[in-house]
């Protein structure tokens, strides 16, 4: 059965492509490589021993998406393609709206034309804004604080309208918490260029000596040790969650929303300490001012996805720290 994976060369898409191939699906990837490299395709093939079809191009390109659908009998789409840097979205909002929303509209139009009405969409816990209640349930109030988050919320709204207009669609919206780690082979993972915005890539660059010191953004939050608390989830668990969501979509599930998180929050200091212990390295740090826009704590209530899909995270923070570092050391 052929599944189209948009953004399949990226961090989450590549791990999910591996899980799909291992589960016996045929995978077609479309990616314009604006935030990834083509050698990911070879790594996916190496890990799985299976072939994957790759189209280099933009999901905003109607002719390209039309061509893909005309050449393949696509049963469902996993839609990862999108720009995701919060800071950049504040300085370049039009780029984010154009890329993330246009690509989705284009995709949905071509899917409608070919009567392929099964889609799993990558949303984010960012749509919960600053949560009033923890842990966060799927029916919590939604709001965003930056253009990136707004693209996710608008796309969720577009998908809901599409479903309302035509109940033949099966649409699952997955709201990810904080994915970390890498495939255990060390062949795919996450290693952004330049100075990272996110915590784990920054920790790794300090551990490898590429950056001198980790700045911890505030230790005066209302959390057990004062540093920010997040729900970190292993990328392999996240990828496997997509397989469960896809299975449900293919059975005809209507419109569904699920949190993909572990349900447990860890502080910045806990993550740093665990990373140091597991990898036997030092991560010097200093406490600096809070980062504007950050929230104190954010973690999921993943009970709905467990009840409905039987999915729960299996790997722990040690696995995330070990696998994240292993990937970077191996590809250095
Ligand atoms: P990523 O940047 O590693 O992967 C996205 C991929 O999409 C990249 O390979 C990029 O080249 C491609 N792409 C972007 N725009 C495209 C376009 N118009 N046409 C074709 N390809 C395009 O990001 P990721 O971490 O793998 O995230 C995947 C999805 O999950 C994104 O939609 C992101 O917003 C969402 N998400 C990510 C996180 C996270 O922490 N990583 C959290 C919540 C949600
Ligand atoms: N953080 C930090 N130093 C960094 C990057 C992040 O202290 O260099 C903190 C941040 O304040 C938050 C947590 O680490 O409490 C996770 O941040 P990240 O940017 O990885 O994810 P998000 O804020 O999107 O949940």
Which helices and strands occur, and which strands form pairs?
Blueprint: E1 2-6, H1 11-22, E2 26-31, H2 39-48, E3 53-56, H3 62-71, E4 74-79, H4 86-91, H5 93-113, E5 118-124, H6 147-165, E6 170-176, E7 178-180, H7 199-207, E8 214-217, E9 229-230, E10 232-234, H8 235-251, E11 255-260, E12 266-267, H9 268-279, E13 285-288, E14 297-298, H10 303-309, H11 317-331
Parallel strand pairs: 1-2, 1-4, 2-3, 4-5, 5-6, 6-11, 7-10, 8-13, 9-14
Antiparallel strand pairs: 9-12
Helix pairs in contact: 1-2, 1-8, 3-5, 5-6, 9-11
Bound molecules: nicotinamide-adenine-dinucleotide (NAD) and uridine-5'-diphosphate (UDP).
Strand fraction band?
A: 15-25%
CATH overall fold name of the domain at 2-181 and 232-261: Rossmann fold
Order of helices and strands: EHEHEHEHHEHEEHEEEHEEHEEHH
Assembly state of the chains shown: single chain
**CATH superfamily descriptor of the domain at 2-181 and 232-261:** NAD(P)-binding Rossmann-like Domain
Spatial gap, N to C terminus: 36 Å
């Amino acid at each position: 059965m052929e599944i189209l994976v948009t953004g399949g060369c990226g961090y989450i898409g590549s791990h999910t492509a591996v899980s799909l191939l291992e589960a016996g699906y045929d995978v077609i990837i479309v990616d314009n490589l604006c935030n990834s490299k083509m050698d990911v395709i070879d790594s996916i093939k190496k890990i799985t021993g299976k072939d994957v079809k790759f189209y280099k191009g933009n999901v905003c390109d109607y002719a390209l998406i039309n061509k893909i659908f005309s050449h393949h009998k696509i049963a469902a789409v996993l839609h990862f393609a999108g720009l995701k840097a919060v800071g950049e979205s504040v300085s370049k909002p039009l780029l984010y709206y154009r890329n993330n929303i246009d690509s989705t509209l284009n995709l949905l139009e071509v899917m409608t034309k070919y009567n392929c009405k099964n889609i799993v969409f990558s949303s984010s816990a960012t749509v919960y804004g600053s949560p009033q209640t923890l842990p966060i349930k799927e029916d919590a109030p939604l709001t965003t604080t930056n253009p990136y988050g707004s693209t996710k919320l608008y796309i969720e709204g577009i998908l809901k309208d599409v479903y309302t207009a035509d109940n033949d669609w099966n649409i699952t919206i997955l709201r990810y918490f904080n994915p970390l780690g890498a495939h255990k082979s060390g062949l795919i993972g996450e290693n952004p260029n330049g100075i990272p915005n996110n915590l784990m890539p920054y920790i790794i660059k300090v551990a490898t000596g590429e950056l001198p010191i980790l700045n911890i953004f505030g230790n005066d939050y209302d959390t057990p040790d004062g540093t920010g608390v997040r729900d970190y989830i292993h990328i392999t668990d996240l990828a496997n969650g997509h397989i469960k969501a896809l299975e449900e979509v293919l059975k005809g599930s209507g419109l569904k929303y699920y949190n993909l998180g572990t349900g447990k929050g860890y502080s910045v200091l806990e993550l740093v300490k665990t990373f140091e212990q597991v990898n036997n390295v030092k991560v010097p740090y200093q406490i600096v001012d809070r980062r504007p826009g950050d929230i104190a704590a954010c973690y999921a209530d993943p009970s709905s996805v467990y009840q409905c899909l039987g999915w729960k995270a299996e790997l722990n923070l040690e696995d995330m720290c070990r696998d994240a570092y292993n990937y970077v050391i191996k590809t250095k």
